[in-house]
Structure formats: structure tokens, C-alpha cells
Amino acid sequence: MSDIIRLDSVSQFNDLKGIETRHPKVSVFDYVDAKTKFLPDGRYSCGFYSVFLKEAVCGELQYGRNTYDYDLGTLVFVGPGQVLGIKNKTDYEPQGKTLLIHPDFINGTSLAKKMSSYSFFSYEQNEALHLSEREHQIIVDLFQKIDYELDQPFDKHSRTLISNNIETLLNYCLRFYDRQFITREDLNKGMLVHFENLLSDYYDSDKAQTLGLPTVGYFAEKLNLSANYFGDLMKKETGKSAQEHLHLKLIDKAKEKIFDTEKTISQIAYELGFQYPQHFSRLFKNETGYSPNEYRSMN
């Protein structure tokens, strides 16, 4: 496996692209202004947030096990510390825009408190946001506003105006992702059915005893999704988080097993994937209001 190229600062990325660094903690540029059209093939880890607006088929980005070819009007988000693989094609002219935001730039602003809510920074690249023509124009306008501010002499208003425009852009992306979840409803429902089948198989086999309690990450991997995208998909489609679904299934299976009086509560706990029976008893009581023994006696 190739070594990871680490870019800790915004200026390092700008230097690779041949872009002037107007501010050391934030940058926005158009591909046509970059002196270097392509970053060298490789795997990169950046110490800042990156938003890539791809406006043409621009080669392949690789993330995890997936490779994605970009269509017109696609937004990709990469958070600090994530590894992004780049594999260039030789027969295309890259088009689009890039926004880079170092966490230090937004510290102390309202945006800093909200960054954790933008879960799409942890999505995989095949979960990119595809824009309609109108959505694309809104995003481009916000890129241009940020670009305008970076061209002005930096004053006491600059940081607030830039961070506010970044926050507005990311809030629009939340809305557009909600739209994308809706427009892919049929695909999403198929994904949910697959998840339910995988979850049933987990408890019908010996996976719980060998692997322990099921996790959101386990099922996201089986569905070829990032954990955050899978969690957001579940919430949008069902109103419940993926973790809530796992708990509900666990309790349903526990209730079934408790009726088998030949098994002790400890045996049932181990079969369900618990390492310690007392943890099972505590969770069961929190969910049902009764201890496993009380529930068995009542029924």
C-alpha cells in the first residue's frame, strides 16, 4: 500500500495546485485558475475540511473500497484526517471549484458548534451529493461570495462574513441531501429490506456469539455505505436511528429467548452477544421496565 501524503495546512494544498494563498486558513478557487491541473496520483490525508464541486467527469476519487466517476454538478465532502485517493485520467479537462476550511478559521464562530451536524463530511465518495441545475447555481453563488471576501482587505468583518457564507452553503447541502434521500426512495427502501434481512441473519446464525453485539458499522460495511450515511438514511426513512433499530431487534430477540425456561438469563445474554450478563439485564430493564427474570415470571 502506498504511503499517505499528509497536507496539514491550506497553503500546502494551494502550493500543490499552484494557487495563491490569500488566507492561510481558508481558500476557494476555480480549477481553471490552478497552474497545476492534477494532483499526483496517491493517497492524501488533509488537516482541514474540503468541499469539491465537480462540474465535469474528472477522473476517479477512491475512498475505502469504492471508486466513483463524477457526473456534472456533484459535491464531495472530505473531513480532516480522512484518506482520499486520487487516480487521474489523461483525457479530460478538470472543471469545478474547491473550498478548503481549516478548523482554526472557524473556532469561536457559530459554525464551529455546528460542524459535527454536517455528517456528510464522513460520507464515502459514492455517497456524493448530485445537484439539480438550480441547486448548482445556489452553490456556485456562495462559492463566489466567499471568493469575493477573500479578495478584499481583511478587516474585523471578514471572518464573520466568510464563516457565515460557509455555514449557509453547508446548510443548503443539508437540504439538498434531504431531497436526494427522497428522490432515491425506491433505492433506499431496497437498502432497508437488505438491512432487515442482514439483521435477522445475524441473530439466526451464531454471529452474535462469535462477533458480539451488532454494530451500526458492521451493517454499513455490509451495505457498502459509510456509517454516517447509513445512519442518516435510516433516520430519514424510518424516523429512528440505526442504533435504535438494533436495540429494538435485540429486545425482540431477548423476549423470544426468555420464554425458553431451560436457559438461564446468563446463557441468553451470551447468545445475544453480551460479554457480561449484567449489561444485558440493565439494557432489558431500561427498554421494557422489567428485569429479564421479572419479564419471564409475568409471562
UniProtKB/TrEMBL annotation:
Pfam families noted in UniProt: HTH_18
Signal peptide: none
Entry annotated with the keyword DNA-binding: yes
Keywords, comma-separated and alphabetical: DNA-binding, Transcription, Transcription regulation
Highest taxon above the source species: Bacteria
Keyword Transcription regulation: yes
Classification via InterPro entries: Homeodomain-like_sf (IPR009057), HTH_AraC (IPR018060), Tscrpt_reg_AraC-type_HTH (IPR020449)
Transmembrane segments: none
Gene Ontology MF terms in the entry: DNA-binding transcription factor activity; sequence-specific DNA binding
Annotated ranges, domain HTH araC/xylS-type: 197-298
Database matches in SMART domains: HTH_ARAC
Name of the featured protein: AraC family transcriptional regulator
Organism, scientific name: Mangrovibacterium diazotrophicum
